[in-house]
Amino acid sequence: MNKVVQFVKESIAELRKVMWPSRDDVIGSVKVVIISTVIIAAILGLVDFLLLLGVQVIFQ
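Predicted structure:
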């Protein structure tokens, strides 16, 4: 049981040393992720559509 208590105390001590990001940093990172996800999805959707058109032209 002593090892568990020691582990929890050490974990808390380490978490106090962490430099947590500010709210503005987190919001900025979330915006970047959302925008890049939308851009990648649009590009993949366009490629998929173009490949579908190509396959339809070949097999018709």
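Summary: The helical segments are 2-17, 23-59.
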